[in-house]
Write a structure and sequence with these properties.
- By secondary structure, this protein is mostly helical.
- The chain is built from 5 helices and no strands.
- Among the domains are: 52 residues, no CATH class; 66 residues.
- It is rod-shaped, with a radius of gyration of 48 Å.
Length: 197
């Protein structure tokens, strides 16, 4: 990874490069890209990653490996381990950040959906209330028209009853009609005045 990072960093910082996106130089390796993000946040580690193998430690293919026992590497204080730990920490932070962003977007979507449902429910309730009111107004108008018709018929009935030339049968028919009209008028009065529209 160190070698790949150094090559990517060299290409990224080369003069004449017009791209500001380091990921384009990583050959699709996300670990190299995360290393760059880490080193951007912690520049003191940059020299640890850029450092190559010292000349005194380099060998050619004809040389033998020195017989001296190598000094054990202190993994706890190793710059490499620090980089790996920091990379893992950065990857965890990025993962948690993305997860939080997803949760926030999902909560916002659910809230908008609830608000949309509430608005739709309110719209339905208002529409039903308008329909009920319209129906009640039509019913009231119908009852009022019928009431006026019956009132006119009763007036005519009274005029007819005042005619002295009526026969007994005609008078009885008019009185029966009058009773029927009075009963209907009473029902219409109850409809008109006992209900709030």
């Amino acid at each position: 990874m160190n070698k790949t990072y150094k090559e990517a960093y060299s290409n990224f910082t080369r003069s004449g490069n017009n791209s500001s996106d380091f990921y384009e130089f990583c050959n699709g390796r996300k670990d190299v890209y995360y290393l760059r993000l880490l080193l951007h946040d912690k520049p003191q580690l940059h020299e640890t990653v850029k450092a190559g193998v010292p000349d005194s430690c380099a060998l050619t293919s004809n040389e033998e490996i020195p017989s001296a026992t190598p000094t054990p590497r202190k993994t706890k204080d190793s710059g490499y381990d620090s980089v790996v730990t920091a990379l893992n920490s950065l990857a965890d932070r990025e993962g948690k950040k993305r997860k939080m962003e997803i949760l926030i977007r999902e909560d916002a979507r659910k809230q908008k959906e609830e608000e949309r449902k509430d608005r739709e429910e309110e719209r339905k309730i208002r529409a039903e209330q308008r329909e009920e009111k319209d129906y009640a107004m039509k019913e009231k108008d119908y009852a009022m028209n019928e009431f006026e018709k019956i009132t006119d018929l009763l007036r005519k009935n009274r005029q007819d009853l005042s005619d002295p030339t009526l026969s007994l049968d005609e008078r009885e028919d008019l009185l029966c009609t009058q009773q029927l009209l009075m009963s209907q008028k009473k029902k219409l009065q109850q409809t008109l005045f006992s209900t709030n529209y």
